[in-house]
Amino acid sequence: MEDIIVVKLGGGASESLDQAFFNQIRKWREENKKIVIIHGGGHAISKMMEHLGIPVQMKKGRRITSKETLDVSKMVLIGQVQPEISTKFQKENIPLIGLNASNAHLLEAVPTDDAELGFVGEISRVNTHFLQEILTLNAVLLIAPLGLDTNHNWWNVNADVAASAVASALNADTFYLLTDVPGVKKEGTLLKAITPFQIQDLIEKGDVFGGMIPKLKSAVGASQNGVQKVYITKQIGVVGTEIKREVGHSDAFISHL
């Protein structure tokens, strides 16, 4: 679908939305762009878990999710983070609609292959028809990164992974993965563009690690699934690092991760 911009808003970034962010959203709306935001909330989830005395465990940048952790994630993402972001949009007089997997089975999930992650899922289907209908209301869409399976069980989903699935399903024109750094760096130098095999090399050499790994995997996946422009950056509208499409090799790279 043309003229759609998907933005993955990290948990840390969502706490410090500045005027430049909202100015860019307004500019896109004036250009008749449709905007879909998938928000994270990792910092807020970890903070709540620590408050409740629940151990925080991570594996390769992904949260190990027990049933208790899943309940906290749902509570924080839908009950705290999403309303906080929505309120900021309201203050800026930008119409916004908050959504989650329970709206028309928006994000369908299946368990990840790694059983050690617990109640962590991958997106198997996006209800694009529903999203396209809601987009006609001319509001920004804000989606929580949670999924439901066919038996209506909830799954925690990495926000980068969820955003990539939405961008791919909508055939978005542009996909921004916002993070707290300007882009992907090698030895302190910002890389303006990078290919999947260059990414694999950075991971193997330990130049990127932790939460950047699922972010890079998600960026590559979106690029290989038809999203025209994919950027990892600190600010929307700023290129940061562009993920370049690489024909014939990236599927193996994605599987390797």
Structure description:
- With 257 residues, the chain is α/β, with parallel strands linked by helices.
- It has a single domain (4-256), classed as Acetylglutamate kinase-like (Carbamate kinase, 3-Layer(aba) Sandwich).
- The chain is built from nine helices and 16 strands.
- The strands form five sheets. An eight-stranded mixed beta sheet has the order 5-8-2-1-11-15-16-14, with helices on both faces.
- Helix 3 (42-52) packs across helix 4.
- Mean pLDDT is 90; it is low at 249-257.
Task: Write out key terms for the chains shown.
single chain, 257 residues, two-stranded antiparallel ribbon, Carbamate kinase, 9 helices, 8-stranded mixed sheet, alpha/beta
**Taking strands numbered 1, 2, ... along the chain, how are they ordered across the largest sheet?**
5-8-2-1-11-15-16-14
Helical stretch count?
9
- Write out the CATH superfamily name: Acetylglutamate kinase-like
Spans of at least 5 consecutive residues whose pLDDT stays below 50 are 249-257
| Annotated CATH architecture | 3-Layer(aba) Sandwich
Describe the largest sheet.
8 strands, mixed
Catalytic activity: N-acetyl-L-glutamate + ATP = N-acetyl-L-glutamyl 5-phosphate + ADP
GO biological process, one term: L-arginine biosynthetic process via ornithine
GO molecular function: acetylglutamate kinase activity; ATP binding
Pathway: Amino-acid biosynthesis; L-arginine biosynthesis; N(2)-acetyl-L-ornithine from L-glutamate: step 2/4
